[in-house]
Specification:
mainly alpha; 5 helices; 0% strand; globular
């Protein structure tokens, strides 16, 4: 709902509330928040979520990376988007075909 309504900041707030309530954040939860950022071209926030996922030892998958790449593309951060693709390949995450 946050993704479609352009409420990326609400999605991030929900993640914080879930963590505070000791709800386990997983790949799907984080991917939904990354997607909300992507819909609004919020590359920086999407990247912060990827970093948090790595810090929390939550697996990043093709969808998560692809959505973050798209967020950077929408935010005109082409070099960052390309860097994510390199990181994705280095992590041996399957590239979308």
């Amino acid at each position: 709902a946050c993704e479609k309504g352009g409420e990326w900041h609400q999605a991030l707030r929900l993640l914080v509330e879930m963590a505070s309530a000791r709800v386990e954040l997983d790949t799907i939860t984080y991917s939904a928040a990354v997607s909300a950022c992507e819909k609004n071209g919020r590359c920086g926030q999407a990247l912060s979520l990827l970093e948090q996922m790595a810090s929390d030892r939550v697996a990043l998958n093709t969808i998560t990376y692809s959505t973050a790449v798209s967020a950077c593309e929408k935010g005109s951060q082409w070099a960052t988007a390309l860097g994510l693709l390199v990181e994705m390949a280095a992590a041996r995450v399957e590239l979308d075909t």
